[in-house]
Amino acid sequence: MTAICKRAWVHGSVQGVGFRYTTQHEARARGLNGYARNLDDGSVEVLACGEEKEVEALIAWLKAGGPRSARVDKVLTEPCVLQEQPAGFTTG
C-alpha cells in the first residue's frame, strides 16, 4: 500500500449544495483522511490522504462532478507532503 496526500481545488457551483458533506461521505467510504472546506472565492478545497488508489478514485469522483446537486467546472490538484496526516475526514 502506498500512502499519498493530494490537495484539490474544486470550482463551479459547489457551495451551498451539500458538496462538502457528500465529499466527506465518499472519502470516509474509501478510508481517507483529510478535509473539505469552503474558500472565500466560492470554491471548495479538498485534502485527501490515504492509499494512492483511493485518493485517485476520490479525485476522479470530484472531476466527474461530485454530488448531483453540484456543478463542477474545473478541479485543480497537486500532491502535498504533510508532517502529520490528519485523523479522519472533516468538513470545515
Automatic annotation (TrEMBL):
Its EC number is 3.6.1.7. Pfam families: Acylphosphatase. The active site is at R20, N38. Residues 5-92 form the Acylphosphatase-like domain. SUPFAM superfamilies: Acylphosphatase/BLUF domain-like. It is an enzyme of class 3 (hydrolase). Keywords: Hydrolase. It catalyses: an acyl phosphate + H2O = a carboxylate + phosphate + H(+). InterPro entries: Acylphosphatase, Acylphosphatase-like_dom, Acylphosphatase-like_dom_sf, Acylphosphatase_bac, Acylphosphatase_CS. The keyword S-adenosyl-L-methionine does not apply. The keyword Cell inner membrane does not apply. GO terms for molecular function: acylphosphatase activity. HAMAP family: Acylphosphatase_entero. Belongs to the acylphosphatase family. PANTHER family: ACYLPHOSPHATASE. This is Acylphosphatase. It comes from Erwinia plantamica. The lineage of its organism: Bacteria, Pseudomonadati, Pseudomonadota, Gammaproteobacteria, Enterobacterales.
